[in-house]
């Protein structure tokens, strides 16, 4: 079981950040519509993280991250999404900077 000091939203982004390079290696050039796949791949962890968000500040950061990810897909910079960097960055931001202050915003 996850402790109280660990955010489930952060864990979701961590998993997606670690799985993105693996999926990119196996699915590249095998997906018929790569753009829509990456929209769905970017949207899924954000929707789940919104459900498990512990504070309003985390919700705002998740929505901001979603906007950035969708803009990256719109600009066709697929390598950024496939690297998992944006997901890992969000996991770090939520865990280190937001989680200690979540009690202030509840």
From TrEMBL:
<keyword id="KW-0472">Membrane</keyword>
<keyword id="KW-0812">Transmembrane</keyword>
<feature type="transmembrane region" description="Helical">
    <location>
        <begin position="6"/>
        <end position="23"/>
    </location>
</feature>
<feature type="transmembrane region" description="Helical">
    <location>
        <begin position="81"/>
        <end position="98"/>
    </location>
</feature>
<feature type="transmembrane region" description="Helical">
    <location>
        <begin position="58"/>
        <end position="74"/>
    </location>
</feature>
<protein>
    <submittedName>
        <fullName>Uncharacterized protein</fullName>
    </submittedName>
</protein>
<keyword id="KW-1133">Transmembrane helix</keyword>
């Amino acid at each position: 079981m996850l402790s109280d000091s660990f955010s489930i939203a952060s864990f979701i982004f961590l998993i997606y950040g670690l799985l993105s390079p693996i999926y990119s290696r196996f699915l590249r050039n095998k997906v018929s519509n790569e753009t829509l796949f990456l929209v769905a791949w970017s949207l899924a962890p954000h929707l789940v993280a919104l459900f498990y968000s512990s504070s309003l500040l985390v919700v705002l950061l998740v929505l901001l991250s979603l906007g950035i990810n969708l803009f990256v897909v719109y600009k066709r910079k697929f390598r950024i999404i496939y690297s998992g960097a944006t997901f890992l960055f969000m996991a770090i931001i939520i865990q280190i900077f937001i989680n200690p202050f979540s009690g202030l915003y509840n």
